[in-house]
Amino acid sequence: MPLYLTILILLGSAGLIYLACEFFVNGVEWIGDRFAVGQKATGTILAAFGTALPESVITFVAVAFGATPAQKQIGVGAALGGPLVLATIAYAVAAWTLYAAKRPLKTATAAEDFKGLSRDQGWFLAIFVFKLTAGLIAFAFKPWLGVVFLAAYGAYVWQETRGEQGESEGELEPLKLAPRSAHPATRLAVIQTVAALGVIFIASRLFVGQIDALGHHLGLKPQLLALLLSPIATELPETLNAIIWIRQGKVKLALANISGAMMIQATIPTAFGLFFTPWILDPSLIVAGGVTLAAVIVLFMGFRSGRMSRAWLSSMAAFYLAFVAIILSLHLN
User: Fold this and answer.
1) What is the full DSSP assignment across 314-332?
2) pLDDT digits over 242-294, tens only?
3) How far is CA 271 from the centre of its chain?
4) What are the φ/ψ torsions at residue 145 (nearest 5 degrees)?
5) Closest CA to 270 of 153, 156, 189, 185
6) What is the pLDDT of residues 185-211, one digit of tens each?
7) Count of beta carbons in the 10 Å neighbourhood of residue 321
8) CA dist list (Å): 143 to 59, 163, 174, 275, 285
9) What H or E segment, with its residue span, contains residue 58?
10) Global pTM?
11) Inter-residue contact 262 to 238 (CB < 8 Å)
12) How far apart, in whole angstroms, are the C-alpha atoms of residue 52 and residue 244?
């Protein structure tokens, strides 16, 4: 396929993902409202699980049905690459959107919001350290640890749905499938959300395919492509959700969606990897894990201290740039 056609399809699929995300975030907010989930849990659980589900399925297929060790390693790489992109690029894009929309990060409820987000990052740190340690040591009962990761996500969901949700931001926009109805039927919200998720899944796979084709055009090695570009492509829906919600003035919901997606990426794909692979990390994946750990510690400190700012969030992109430099250096040498 010619390079210009690859770029056109890449841009077209990205636009389709953004449009589908508009329908998705609108529908999932109505579902959260109808089931009284709470706005924070809507972001951390409902929206995050919906957008991360396609990626988790792909990881499962790679590790469970991969014909070669290299194909299984792609699934392991996805389990490490997703959290890295979310902790760095996604938060930085959220900050840049805040600047562009001229919206403050610190509001009247910032102290309470930051406390909840720091708790999310604390959950992630505890699980991620365990995840990295398991990838450095070989032992016989390692596959059984997958159950521990699934249980950890279950505990996180329980805590999020039962915890204090705080005040909601803004009003619900009319459901796009029923714009004239002040109280649309729940089934319409579910239909809109599931349909939008299906479009996101198809468009994301098309987007990732074009990233792969672009890598071939540029002469990038498959390993470099999988580590540097593919995770950005697969985490695009979560990033676009954050942009949409920030544009609507729902900053807490946007940041909660990113932190919730990080929790899913730290647990469910890891459980699949432990069930179906030896879960031994190569040097590149260890670097990815180390950079992710450093980035999340910085996020935790910012939210915990209450000093988090747009500039602080924006600086998270530097961690991804550092990761790119280290990986390129390893491969070039």
Assistant:
1) HTTHHHHHHHHHHHHHHHH
2) 999 999 888 988 998 899 899 998 899 899 889 988 888 888 889 999 999 99
3) 17
4) -65, -20
5) 153
6) 999 999 999 999 888 888 877 877 787
7) 11
8) 16, 31, 46, 5, 19
9) helix 48-65
10) 0.85
11) no
12) 17
